[in-house]
Amino acid sequence: MSKFAKILLIVINVTASLLLALSILSIFRNTTSKFFKLLDFPRIQMFLTAMISLGLYLFLKKTKWKWYNYFIVAGLAVAMVIQSFFLIHYTVLVPVEVKTVEKITAADVPISMLIINVEMSNRESKPLIKLIENKQPDLILAMEVDMWWENQLETIRQEYPYTQKMVNEVTYGMILYSKLPLKKIDVNYLNNPKVPSFETEIILPQGKRFILYSVHPVPPTHFADLPDNAGEKEIAMKKLGNRIVSKKLPAVVAGDINDVVWSYVDELTGTKDILYDLRVGRGFYNSYNAKNILMRWPLDHVFVTKEFQLQHLQILPDIGSDHYPLYVELVLKSNN
């Protein structure tokens, strides 16, 4: 065996031990510990690292197996199984939670929506404006909007006469642009006075209505000068879940929730059998980090109640933000 192969085996040994430990610890994610919460994010990366390491190990270690060699293989396999338990929900190996629309009748109501965290420090507005002109969605939810971004997006106001906005300079500004009339707009501060969320009743053709909950809760970490969620359970999402449960209209929850979820929405919001994840049974649709190919996971989400079916879900091209835009076409079925 070459010297390089021996070094690579040592690296794999260390990697296997670390992946096994982190995978086991990642099970305890429902905690106030920042460390345990953050282990929930890189599940795709940990699974792929374990799979590649296992393949390399079996290729390199062909003879003279001892007990610890079997331990390394078993450790990598266990790490993959643990990560697969969470990731499998976002593959075609499981049924979808939200049905794909097969036929749109005249009584059905299609709704298109663009969700984008613009990244407040990003000062390139033209790619987003061009994207909006091409897609022409009914609704646009823009997050991390400061005064500069609000001014830049004034160019789309003619096409989007209905708006709700709460702009700030701490990366939690939010604007909802709509071609559809808005009614009963509530601005809520679910767990921080600097972090707004919207609850908006949207009037559709034929007099139908649904409630859109626009959210951007803080991530499970600490920031020196910004709103933070260090040491907190997901208070904002629990409060949101209570509001959804008390409503009778069809509902959509959209935004950058700063959480990867991994089929966790029921526990995160307390909305079992009420909210459904568009991604389940379809794919990861990683929206973050657009600037780092090795650290990507789904942070921007859309959840819907049973009245909706999905026509199209897509991650759109880079617009200069650290998030990719998420574009969705829903259909509110006529029998609901």
**What is the N-to-C order of secondary-structure elements (H for helix, E for strand)?**
HHHHEHEHEEEEEHEHEEEE
Query: Roughly what fraction of the amino acids lie in strands?
Result: 15-25%
Unreliable spans are 226-231
- Please report the distance between the alpha carbons of the first and last residues: 67 Å
- The number of strands is 12
The spatial strand order of the largest sheet comes to 3-4-2-1-12-11
Number of helices: 8
* Residues in helix, %: 25-40%
**Radius of gyration based on Cα positions:** 22 Å
Largest sheet: 6 strands, mixed
- Class by SSE composition: alpha+beta
Overall pLDDT confidence = 89
Which geometry do the CA atoms define?
Answer: elongated
List the helices and strands and how they pair.
Layout: H1 3-25, H2 34-38, H3 43-60, H4 67-87, E1 109-117, H5 126-135, E2 139-143, H6 147-152, E3 162-166, E4 174-178, E5 182-188, E6 197-203, E7 209-215, H7 235-245, E8 251-256, H8 265-269, E9 276-277, E10 300-304, E11 308-315, E12 326-332
Parallel strand pairs: 1-2, 7-8
Antiparallel strand pairs: 1-12, 2-4, 3-4, 5-6, 6-7, 8-10, 9-10, 11-12
Helix pairs in contact: 1-3, 1-4, 3-4
Question: What this model shows, in words?
Answer:
By secondary structure, this protein is of the alpha+beta class. The strands form two sheets. The chain has a six-stranded mixed beta sheet with strand order 3-4-2-1-12-11, with no helix packed on it. A six-stranded mixed beta sheet has the order 5-6-7-8-10-9, with no helix packed on it. A hairpin with a 7-residue loop joins strand 3 and strand 4. Helix 1 crosses helix 4. The radius of gyration is 22 Å and the shape is elongated. About 40% of the residues are buried. About 0% of the residues have low confidence.
